[in-house]
Amino acid sequence: MTRVLNFSAGPSQLPLTVVQKAAAQLLEYGTSGQSVMEMSHRSSTFLEIVRETERRLRSLLQIPQNYRVLFLQGGASLQFSMVPMNLLKPKGKAGIIHTGTWTKKAIEECRKFGECVVLASGEADHFHSIPKDVIVPQDLDYVYLCENNTIIGTKYKTLPECGHVPLVADCSSCILSEPMDVSRYGLIFAGAQKNMGIAGLTVVIVRDDLIEERPELPSMMSYAVQVKHESMFNTPPTFAIYMLGLVLEWIETEFQDLKALQSYNQRKVALLYDYLDSSALFKNEVKKEDRSMMNVPFMTDDPQLDAKFIAYAQAEGLVNLKGHRSVGGMRASIYNGMPMEGVEKLVEVMKRFEEAQAIC
Amino acid sequence: MTRVLNFSAGPSQLPLTVVQKAAAQLLEYGTSGQSVMEMSHRSSTFLEIVRETERRLRSLLQIPQNYRVLFLQGGASLQFSMVPMNLLKPKGKAGIIHTGTWTKKAIEECRKFGECVVLASGEADHFHSIPKDVIVPQDLDYVYLCENNTIIGTKYKTLPECGHVPLVADCSSCILSEPMDVSRYGLIFAGAQKNMGIAGLTVVIVRDDLIEERPELPSMMSYAVQVKHESMFNTPPTFAIYMLGLVLEWIETEFQDLKALQSYNQRKVALLYDYLDSSALFKNEVKKEDRSMMNVPFMTDDPQLDAKFIAYAQAEGLVNLKGHRSVGGMRASIYNGMPMEGVEKLVEVMKRFEEAQAIC
């Protein structure tokens, strides 16, 4: 087979050794006589997979003991609702820092359940920068932000000072790409299909004191119910949890810790930004200090030339480089599963394309 | 490898050829250069997988044109809430036929959103039979039932006459086991991890006229939103959808249609019921006319002997025969993925155990 380089924003390229291990184990996990896909979620073998997956996640992210880890379904979009449904007090309010499409959706969902104050917005700047020095009123139930914007390619490098107000962060496209100080957050959530595995699993990390019984909510939407049942109020997405375990094992084996992985990711993305900053053809419009390490949008000044480049790259085995439909241009998502060689190849292809254009 | 016979109630045994095909394609799907797990859900290759999966499902179940098919997450338990949230009118009411654990949960979730009338209950009979001749008041927003009770092992053989009231059915443990007249239902839902594939996918089949915009609901919980976005309001559980496609392809290849599959399933389960009815040791307590074709609980008169049998069977490679914790005893779930040889082996092991007990 010729493996493509997949720059999709998610679902996205997995480490090859992870896919190979999954393939090798697919017919039989260990000596269980069955596929992980077939296992009862209450069997001792599967429960051991869950325990080991949570242990690895806790170890890599250094999750403090007063946080629970949940393996849920529904993606970040369901969390846009679950967060206000569980965290908004009666007549309370949330504060959101607006940085693009995903916070817009989060605001819309939040307002179905209560007041949502936009504390700061990057809209005037087309979201090309992250709002700084945000003042957080101390009467909020929580402050919400999207830590890495997958579409625009921005990333918080420092978190806002929230005082006593719990910080809730959508970390779907940056979790596990670098170390994070979990103790600064009240709640973190992330879809798995970018840096952690495959679609169909959502990881929630929530601080004990934010878990409140909400008997009026659908049981499946209550953090308290999910915590009480250790993510098994009903059948969890078993195979996706197993895949997360394989990805975590790969990180431990290849990098040992997230500091080393961060260093690798920084070197990967520097290749691309350095080239973009030197290119006469391609540009990235994000404020340098707010650039994402995971998602790098870029474009020429001509949409037709963009389309030509996308086709050119595709012919070279570089797929899913088309930018999000809301912004156009190109986007290279270079999550943990994208190796250095993939980014090197991308830069090489971009250079060659640029040289060919210069000759035309 | 020695493949166990897995009688789990779900996740459950898949047809071996389905697991083999998934394993063969896991590193590369077709000539795509990537695993299905890695594919963008908006890529043409994956969209073709979704279209083909829906086409096969529509063909096998003969779903009429005025029904939409949704590929969602959250399992039946999330549907327990989504159904009333979407189908209950303001100050309206639902009617439920109570047949055990799963309708109890559905009643509890429904009552968070409105009135829920229990039209009939099998409780006095320990749910060993399905209530018959239920009168359906015509002022209900919908009638709800669980068509096959996974825990007790009961199954509706005829549906209640609902008049103009839409019928909503939880078909998690019987869908695709036999033909069904979809036009008799307003809405059908089913978790995939029993007869259709793996955990993390929920199939909803809903009639057009029941799809109402409900802007007050979380977007992910609105059938109208999910229909409008063709199950891609956000990233769907891509790999689980692919697995459903493989199971549907297997049914088409092995049986052509659900009538032939039903006939096979009937012959499979008859082996087990015939033996149970002749056994002096084991018994099944369900009223004969209401017996399930998919889940067969059985027990001796002695819980210690039950435990001994479960261990004896396990040593023979027959796993997950323990009954649900709420009822004890044993349970053999024999979904589509369990071959005739598996049930033959089970009956053989039961006979041997019974003979050994008689000698003791």
UniProtKB/TrEMBL annotation, chains A, B:
Binding site for pyridoxal 5'-phosphate: 76-77, 102, 150, 170, 193, 234-235
Enzyme class name: transferase
GO cellular component labels: cytoplasm
Any coiled-coil regions, as ranges: none
Cofactor: pyridoxal 5'-phosphate
GO MF term list: O-phospho-L-serine:2-oxoglutarate aminotransferase activity; pyridoxal phosphate binding
GO biological process terms on file: L-serine biosynthetic process
Entry-annotated residues carrying N6-(pyridoxal phosphate)lysine: 194
Ranges where the Aminotransferase class V domain occurs: 4-346
Cytoplasm as UniProt keyword: yes
Major site of localization recorded for this protein: cytoplasm
Compartments it resides in: Cytoplasm
A Pfam family it matches: Aminotran_5
Keywords: Amino-acid biosynthesis, Aminotransferase, Cytoplasm, Pyridoxal phosphate, Serine biosynthesis, Transferase
Cofactor: binding details: Binds 1 pyridoxal phosphate per subunit.
Quaternary structure, from the entry: Homodimer.
Family named by the database record: Belongs to the class-V pyridoxal-phosphate-dependent aminotransferase family. SerC subfamily.
Function: Catalyzes the reversible conversion of 3-phosphohydroxypyruvate to phosphoserine and of 3-hydroxy-2-oxo-4-phosphonooxybutanoate to phosphohydroxythreonine.
Protein name (Swiss-Prot/TrEMBL): Phosphoserine aminotransferase
Organism: Holdemania massiliensis
Encoding gene per record: serC
